[in-house]
């Protein structure tokens, strides 16, 4: 029920229903004001008759030379009636002639009726227009989008502070003509094609409509196969339904799209329904949505009904409460003395809370408040209605008769509440709508609630409408901060600025995005929570596992859960499909072939992006055969093939391990097939195997497999298509080095009009420089290092330059990698540097929002001649897209591709004595000198031992043993002479006592680490043949408890430190526990060694030697293993510390004849092996030639 204009049902051949459709030519810029009669001009007031609105014509000097109101404030307005609906393209303003009176800023309102005004906003929702700087010059503003209206109203915002409001005005445009039809709710307009046109690639249905009803069917179209589309207005939104089978009456079909909001505002809205092949585009004003739908709508069949070809305008005057000080005050009525009171109004708002109406009960000394709280209507403590902050119009009626009070909400579907409290009002009572006057302590109005921000209309008191035009003219009541004769509500969630499926909610002045349902964050759900590859996770110190990967960051591709295998130097992304197991295919004469489809866990766009950004991808393709040929080489037609590549893929006739297009298997490429006459083993029709890796990224992933030679008797086959595996992130290491302050890279203009995120890594020795800059005519965006500890993100979107700064507590010019992430959207701008707290700057609620740039994007330098950047920039991503710095640097003087030196930043990731090694791209950890393994030397190497298990690591034969002479230990093998040693291991056992470690030398010197019979960790040292054994108790007991314990021993000269978890024991001279004779301890250690060791041992390391790691992972090393040695986990890493450990201190004794403090423990390790896990060993014999671990 409403009006429709410009109905066009058309195809590309130009069939039209309406006559004189809107067509705006370049010549639509004629001046319109000069020829208008005097009654066409109105204003809120005038200073004198010579300052009236009729004199406000550009470059005219009649009267006082223009319009000036009686009072210069923001409640004044100037209005022009153009006589009919007109296409308005531009507005020009000028100050009052010969005066100091001119406007510096103003708002424009448009209307078809002289009521229900609509504010005109620029493209980015900024409403204010620039005015004049003097009284004589003419400032013309061309509207970015023409406006169709009859009435124009100008509202002054600011004016010359040394003068008054002064105005002369010109309006530019041209005549506008269109056909209209008025619908009364039961009428319809029919369009039926007299002949069916040929099928067109595109069909368009477009129209304009206006209505004050929030529901109704706007368009219904039936296709040739009983399909129909229905365009329905529902609660102010347009919904598009598709229905299969027009005979279904109970339903209007499946909802395809929902577009627009607040479309029941009695203003014209443009609707276009466009069919492109199998897509439907639905546009409402400037908001477009797209959906896939069957392309069945070609023929239209509808019956004609009763339609009036004129536009019946319904006039209602609304009032907008925009401010925290907005209120409307109305006087009481004489009729209230009868005890009968009624009040009613309609309101719409987005706010959950706000005061609608309040008044005092003078005779009872009480107060009545009618207000919203949490979207529910409340009268004092009574409540009715809910969800009333949905932006729709809601009707509220308050009635009181003697001792009965009722409140009604939405008469059709609302609720009614009753109370016995009477409303005893008098003529002196005052009604306050929306809020209270700003004066503190007003006895007539107190508001303990929030003020109302929204629209009200159809106010009635005792069934009489309130004349809001009189209120506007100050002839009735009082008001402040109101917009009268318009509803200024806007839907900040239509179109939604929440990205990636974020849910938009709003209040009067702002909106909020709920990002909890996706993998994104930020004020508009723009930024991804996840990293772009397994490579990035690895370089944050993560280990193998499942991770969410967002390959394009803030781009449109959704995150995906991927397994990251980080056990090697490279990080593999593993994407599985529905069948990665070996699958057998049995022969059958009835089968013509076997077809297998592979459905991947990732979507198509995700797969394509992973393959594109990876350095290498591979997929196993294996085929086991018996009388089942593959490619039928060399001349026959292929009997098996697979489909791979992007999209639906292409047929591939090469097999695993061969090159694309070669029509070979791996054996054909290597020239080692079972039958040299064929290029595949299986083509020889024998029992064979053709397996290998597919590595050509353009052919991956494998999407389907066809096996054709399986119907013969005796045919057998089995195949396996492994998961897609990709490693390397070409974007993460993409870098450029800027070695001159004048050097820079340039790229095309950055387009981040509403949302822009910029992320990169940098390292430098310089204290300042510009990382990035892009300029527009006035707008710009820049990120720079302002000082050694300050990064600044600056930009201008038309509201003036803004800066977001982060100051760090460390210097950023330390030649280590640092990360920067800057984001700017319509809500806020933020900047984060490394892990420091982010700096955030909120955007103005109604300011400019679009970043408009037009120059080239400069990286590492600037077009504004500021100091350029010296150093490296890496992994530069703008809105999820990585810029290829290396390729551009190859052809740019002063810039070099790549940037070495990653170990200064990432070296700490190499754990447990692992060594960081620089690579051309990135780095790796060398674990040769570590007892651990893995990408970061973080994985324990451990094994389970039985009492019969031993591991012997063979060293060089001692020089003395070979020569059978006695020589000073300091004269030979100086590379093995030790002033001290570092020993570490972890163990888990329930055995007590137990010998954990035994080290001896050719000169009858040794150390032993054991759990003694008191379940205490004990260390014994003998550094000289004539010296007694020193026993050092650690004070740590209960170690044979089946839990993992870590021990570290360090000695430098005579200072020994033993650490068990976090408890450290230092041994100092003359403070040892006690001394025992050598013969006593020799027998005791022999007894312990004969028991062997049962338990788990991990991370065994003596200086740079790791005998257990050598035995388990490097069988070609000089290792001898006896008994069962089973690799297993000891149950945790060395960081699993016992919380009850403490610290003690000791040292070696300073006895007469003791060893020089600088003498090594093992005088040049003249043993030839390390023994791990021995049993029944004669330790005294072993002393001659062994350096032993006995466990």
Automatic annotation (TrEMBL):
Spans annotated as Disordered: 1132-1159
Keywords: Disulfide bond, EGF-like domain, Membrane, Repeat, Signal, Transmembrane, Transmembrane helix
The keyword Repeat is annotated on this UniProt entry: yes
Domain spans labelled F5/8 type C: 28-174
Domain Fibrinogen C-terminal: 525-577
Gene Ontology cellular-component terms listed: membrane
Pfam families linked: EGF, F5_F8_type_C, Laminin_G_2
CDD domains reported for this sequence: EGF_CA (cd00054), FA58C (cd00057), LamG (cd00110)
Subcellular location(s) of the protein: Membrane
Main location: membrane
Domain Laminin G positions: 317-487, 734-899, 942-1130
SMART domains in the record: EGF, FA58C, LamG
Disulfide linkage: 872-899
Polar residues bias locations: 1132-1152
Membrane topology: Single-pass type I membrane protein
Family to which the UniProt record says this protein belongs: Belongs to the neurexin family.
The protein's name in its UniProt record: Contactin associated protein like 3
Organism: Gasterosteus aculeatus aculeatus
């Amino acid at each position: 029920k409403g009006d429709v204009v410009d109905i066009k049902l058309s195809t590309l051949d130009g069939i039209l229903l309406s006559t004189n459709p809107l067509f705006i030519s370049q010549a639509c810029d004629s001046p319109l004001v000069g020829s208008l009669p005097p009654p066409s001009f109105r204003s809120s007031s005038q200073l004198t008759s010579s300052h009236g609105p009729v004199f406000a014509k550009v470059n005219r000097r009649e009267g006082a030379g223009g319009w000036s109101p009686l009072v210069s404030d923001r409640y004044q307005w100037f209005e022009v009636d153009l006589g009919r609906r007109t296409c308005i393209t531009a507005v020009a303003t000028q100050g009052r002639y010969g005066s100091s009176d001119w406007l510096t800023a103003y708002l424009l309102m448009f209307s078809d009726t002289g009521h229900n005004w609509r504010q005109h906003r620029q493209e980015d929702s900024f409403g204010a227009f620039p005015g004049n700087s003097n009284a004589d010059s003419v400032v013309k503003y061309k509207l970015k989008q023409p406006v169709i209206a009859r009435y124009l109203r100008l509202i002054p915002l600011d004016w010359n502070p040394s003068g008054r409001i002064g105005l002369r005005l010109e309006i530019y445009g041209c005549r506008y003509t269109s056909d209209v039809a008025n619908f009364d709710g039961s009428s319809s307009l029919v369009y039926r094609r007299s002949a069916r046109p040929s099928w067109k690639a595109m069909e368009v249905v477009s129209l304009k409509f206006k209505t004050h009803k929030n529901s109704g069917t706007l368009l219904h179209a039936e296709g040739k196969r009983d399909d129909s589309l229905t365009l329905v207005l529902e609660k102010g939104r347009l919904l598009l339904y598709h229905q299969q089978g027009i005979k279904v009456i109970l339903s209007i079909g499946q909802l395809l799209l929902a577009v627009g909001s607040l479309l029941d505002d009695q203003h014209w809205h443009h609707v276009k329904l466009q069919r492109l092949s199998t897509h439907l585009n639905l546009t409402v004003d400037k908001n477009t949505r797209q959906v896939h739908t069957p392309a069945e709508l070609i023929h239209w069949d509808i019956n004609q009904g009763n339609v009036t070809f004129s536009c019946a305008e319904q006039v209602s005057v609304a009032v907008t409460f925009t401010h925290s000080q907005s209120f409307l005050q109305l006087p009481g009525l004489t009729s209230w003395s009868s005890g009968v009171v009624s009040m009613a109004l309609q309101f719409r708002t987005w706010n959950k809370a706000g005061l609608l109406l309040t008044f005092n009960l003078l005779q009872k000394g009480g107060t009545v408040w009618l207000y919203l709280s949490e979207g529910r209507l409340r009268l004092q403590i009574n409540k009715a209605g809910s969800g009333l902050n949905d932006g729709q119009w809601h009707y509220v009626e308050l009635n009181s008769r003697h001792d009965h009070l009722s409140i009604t909400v939405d008469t059709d579907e609302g609720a009614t509440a009753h109370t016995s409290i009477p409303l005893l009002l008098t003529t002196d009572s005052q009604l306050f709508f929306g809020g209270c006057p700003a004066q503190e302590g007003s006895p007539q109005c107190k508001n303990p609630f929030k003020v109302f921000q929204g629209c009200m209309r159809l106010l009635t008191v005792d069934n009489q409408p309130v004349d809001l035009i009189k209120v506007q003219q100050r002839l009735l009541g009082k008001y402040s901060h109101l917009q009268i004769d318009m509803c200024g509500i806007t839907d900040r969630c239509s179109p939604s600025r929440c990205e990636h499926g974020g849910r938009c909610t709003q209040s009067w002045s702002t909106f909020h995005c709920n990002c909890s349902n996706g993998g994104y964050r930020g004020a508009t759900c723009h930024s991804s929570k996840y990293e772009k590859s397994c490579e990035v996770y690895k370089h944050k110190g993560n280990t193998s596992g499942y991770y969410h990967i967002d390959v394009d960051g803030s781009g449109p591709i959704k995150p995906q859960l991927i397994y990251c295998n980080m056990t090697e130097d490279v990080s593999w992304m593993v994407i599985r499909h529905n069948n990665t197991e070996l699958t057998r295919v049995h022969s059958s004469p009835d089968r013509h072939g076997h077809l297998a489809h592979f459905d991947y866990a990732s979507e198509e766009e995700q797969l394509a992006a992973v393959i594109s950004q990876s350095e290498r991808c591979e997929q196993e393709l294996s085929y086991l055969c018996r009388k089942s040929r593959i490619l039928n080489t060399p001349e026959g037609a292929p009997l098996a093939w697979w489909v791979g590549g992007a999209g639906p893929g292409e047929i591939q006739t090469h097999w695993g391990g061969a090159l694309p297009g070669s029509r070979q298997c791996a054996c054909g490429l290597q020239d080692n097939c079972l039958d040299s006459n064929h290029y595949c083993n299986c083509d020889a029709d024998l029992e064979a195997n053709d397996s290998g890796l597919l590595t050509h990224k353009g052919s991956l992933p494998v999407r389907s497999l066809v096996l054709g030679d399986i119907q013969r008797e005796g045919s057998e086959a089995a195949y396996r298509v492994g998961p897609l595996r990709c490693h390397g992130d070409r974007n993460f290491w993409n870098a450029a080095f800027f070695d001159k302050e004048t050097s820079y890279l340039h790229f095309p203009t950055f387009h981040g009009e509403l949302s822009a995120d910029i992320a990169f890594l940098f390292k430098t020795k310089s204290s300042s420089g510009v990382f990035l800059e892009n300029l527009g005519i006035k707008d710009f965006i820049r990120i720079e290092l302002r000082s050694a500890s300050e990064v600044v993100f600056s930009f201008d979107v038309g509201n003036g330059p803004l800066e977001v700064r982060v100051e760090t507590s460390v210097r950023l010019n330390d030649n280590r990698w640092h990360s920067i992430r800057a984001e700017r959207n319509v809500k806020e701008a933020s900047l984060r540097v490394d892990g420091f707290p982010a700096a955030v700057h909120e955007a103005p609620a109604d300011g400019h929002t679009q970043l408009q740039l037009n120059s080239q994007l400069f990286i590492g330098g600037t077009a504004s001649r500021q100091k350029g950047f010296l150093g490296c920039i890496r992994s530069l991503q703008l809105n999820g897209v990585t810029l290829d710095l290396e390729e551009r640097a190859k052809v740019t003087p002063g810039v070099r591709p790549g940037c070495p030196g990653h170990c200064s930043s990432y070296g700490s990731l190499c754990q447990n004595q692992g060594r960081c090694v620089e690579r051309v791209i990135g780095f790796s950890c060398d674990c040769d000198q570590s007892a651990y393994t893995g990408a970061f030397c973080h994985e324990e190497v451990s094994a389970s031992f039985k009492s019969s298990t031993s591991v012997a690591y063979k060293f060089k034969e001692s020089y003395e043993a070979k020569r059978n002479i006695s020589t000073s230990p300091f004269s030979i093998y100086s590379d093995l002479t030790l002033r001290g040693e570092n020993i570490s291991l972890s163990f888990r056992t329930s055995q007590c006592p137990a010998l954990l470690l035994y080290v001896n030398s050719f000169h009858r010197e040794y150390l032993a680490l054991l759990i003694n019979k008191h379940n205490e960790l004990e260390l014994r040292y003998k550094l000289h043949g004539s010296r007694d054994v020193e026993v050092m108790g650690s004070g740590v007991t209960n170690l044979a408890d089946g839990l993992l314990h870590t021990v570290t021993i360090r000695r430098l000269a005579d200072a020994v430190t033993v650490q068990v978890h976090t408890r450290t024991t230092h041994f100092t001279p003359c403070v040892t526990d006690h001394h025992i004779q050598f013969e006593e301890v020799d027998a005791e250690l022999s007894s312990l060694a004969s028991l062997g060791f049962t338990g788990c041992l991990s991370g065994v390391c003596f200086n740079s030697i790791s005998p257990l790691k050598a035995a388990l992972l490097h069988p070609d090393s000089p290792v001898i293993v006896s008994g069962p040695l089973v690799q297993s986990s000891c149950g945790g890493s060395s960081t699993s510390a016992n919380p009850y450990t403490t610290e003690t201190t000791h040292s070696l004794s300073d006895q007469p004849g003791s060893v020089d403090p600088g003498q090594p423990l093992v005088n040049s390790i003249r043993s030839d092996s390390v023994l791990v896990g021995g049993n029944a060993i004669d330790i005294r014999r072993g002393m001659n030639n062994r350096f032993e671990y006995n466990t």
